[in-house]
């Protein structure tokens, strides 16, 4: 199997082939996601919500991200594995940022890191890139800053924030980031960014005119059903598939329908 590289993602944008990206946090799911032909697997800090049940992405630790990433990397044969650097392990201190990125690369075997923000974290990005670690940017709704924003609503609807986002995207490209995630911004703005930078722009809630799409795996599969923003499409309703199977098992156990003659020694 030919492994996906950051260079191939760049070539995909150049030939207008859309890039598919999904999150995964564990070995078993990552194996299925990779086998299904995804281009990029993100070990997102959304693990904080989806795996650990926290309300925000802020509590997840670097050690916990490395644990998730290690499990994912073991399962993946083809996809590029990108790992989120979690809140508190890169902001405002480029030495700490570099140390965190190196720990992720060394201990998990991931292929790249992702960081939220533009000009504010430029020094950290440059330092990590200088160490030979590919960096994916993340602009727009950056969930690690949720307490600054106050809501999870659409970002960059106003001129000033839109102009800063465009400037940040260009800055990330100049620094050498291989790609940028744009989260929950107007489709028109995302289209403009995708046109004005040459690195692949991956959207989530950013419309169709970008170079690829990313979703949280458990949202797409319909496992997490309380979360249903407009941009999310449920490709399955696994919540009922799973609970139906388990309640069937429960009643079979109660009624001694399981195990049967063929299911014992
Ligand atoms: O953590 C995550 O899942 C993400 C994606 C939504 C882009 O950062
Ligand atoms: Na994230």
Automatic annotation (TrEMBL):
<feature type="binding site">
    <location>
        <position position="114"/>
    </location>
    <ligand>
        <name>3-methyl-2-oxobutanoate</name>
    </ligand>
</feature>
<dbReference type="GO" id="GO:0005737">
    <property type="term" value="C:cytoplasm"/>
</dbReference>
<keyword id="KW-0808">Transferase</keyword>
<keyword id="KW-0460">Magnesium</keyword>
<feature type="binding site">
    <location>
        <position position="84"/>
    </location>
    <ligand>
        <name>3-methyl-2-oxobutanoate</name>
    </ligand>
</feature>
<feature type="binding site">
    <location>
        <begin position="45"/>
        <end position="46"/>
    </location>
    <ligand>
        <name>3-methyl-2-oxobutanoate</name>
    </ligand>
</feature>
<dbReference type="GO" id="GO:0015940">
    <property type="term" value="P:pantothenate biosynthetic process"/>
</dbReference>
<feature type="binding site">
    <location>
        <position position="84"/>
    </location>
    <ligand>
        <name>Mg(2+)</name>
    </ligand>
</feature>
<feature type="binding site">
    <location>
        <position position="116"/>
    </location>
    <ligand>
        <name>Mg(2+)</name>
    </ligand>
</feature>
<dbReference type="InterPro" id="IPR003700">
    <property type="entry name" value="Pantoate_hydroxy_MeTrfase"/>
</dbReference>
<keyword id="KW-0566">Pantothenate biosynthesis</keyword>
<feature type="binding site">
    <location>
        <position position="45"/>
    </location>
    <ligand>
        <name>Mg(2+)</name>
    </ligand>
</feature>
<comment type="similarity">
    <text>Belongs to the PanB family.</text>
</comment>
<comment type="pathway">
    <text>Cofactor biosynthesis; (R)-pantothenate biosynthesis; (R)-pantoate from 3-methyl-2-oxobutanoate: step 1/2.</text>
</comment>
<comment type="subunit">
    <text>Homodecamer; pentamer of dimers.</text>
</comment>
<protein>
    <recommendedName>
        <fullName>3-methyl-2-oxobutanoate hydroxymethyltransferase</fullName>
        <ecNumber>2.1.2.11</ecNumber>
    </recommendedName>
</protein>
<dbReference type="InterPro" id="IPR040442">
    <property type="entry name" value="Pyrv_kinase-like_dom_sf"/>
</dbReference>
<keyword id="KW-0479">Metal-binding</keyword>
<comment type="function">
    <text>Catalyzes the reversible reaction in which hydroxymethyl group from 5,10-methylenetetrahydrofolate is transferred onto alpha-ketoisovalerate to form ketopantoate.</text>
</comment>
<feature type="active site" description="Proton acceptor">
    <location>
        <position position="183"/>
    </location>
</feature>
<keyword id="KW-0963">Cytoplasm</keyword>
<dbReference type="InterPro" id="IPR015813">
    <property type="entry name" value="Pyrv/PenolPyrv_kinase-like_dom"/>
</dbReference>
<dbReference type="Pfam" id="PF02548">
    <property type="entry name" value="Pantoate_transf"/>
</dbReference>
<dbReference type="GO" id="GO:0000287">
    <property type="term" value="F:magnesium ion binding"/>
</dbReference>
<dbReference type="GO" id="GO:0003864">
    <property type="term" value="F:3-methyl-2-oxobutanoate hydroxymethyltransferase activity"/>
</dbReference>
């Amino acid at each position: 199997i030919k492994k996906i590289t950051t260079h191939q993602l760049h070539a995909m944008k150049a030939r207008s082939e859309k890039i598919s990206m999904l999150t995964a946090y564990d070995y078993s799911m990552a194996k299925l996601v990779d086998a299904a032909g995804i281009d990029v697997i993100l070990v997102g800090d959304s693990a904080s919500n989806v795996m650990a049940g926290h309300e925000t992405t802020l509590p997840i630790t670097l050690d916990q991200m490395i644990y998730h990433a290690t499990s994912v990397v073991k399962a993946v044969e083809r996809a590029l594995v990108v790992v989120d650097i979690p809140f508190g392990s890169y902001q405002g201190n480029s030495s700490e940022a570099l140390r965190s990125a190196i720990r992720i690369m060394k201990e998990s075997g991931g292929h790249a890191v992702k960081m939220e923000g533009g000009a504010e974290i430029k020094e950290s990005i440059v330092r990590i890139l200088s160490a030979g670690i590919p960096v994916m940017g993340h602009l727009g709704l950056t969930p690690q800053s949720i307490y600054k924003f106050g809501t999870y609503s659409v970002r960059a609807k106003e001129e000033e924030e839109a102009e800063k986002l465009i400037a940040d995207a260009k800055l990330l490209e100049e620094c050498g980031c291989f790609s940028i995630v744009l989260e929950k911004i107007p489709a028109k703005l995302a289209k403009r960014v995708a046109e004005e930078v040459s690195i692949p722009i991956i959207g989530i809630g950013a419309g169709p005119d970008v170079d690829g799409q990313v979703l949280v795996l458990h949202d797409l599969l319909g496992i997490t059903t309380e979360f249903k923003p407009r941009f999310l499409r449920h490709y399955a309703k696994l919540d009922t598939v799973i609970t139906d199977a388990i309640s069937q098992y429960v009643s079979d156990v109660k009624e001694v329908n399981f195990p049967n003659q063929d299911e014992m020694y």
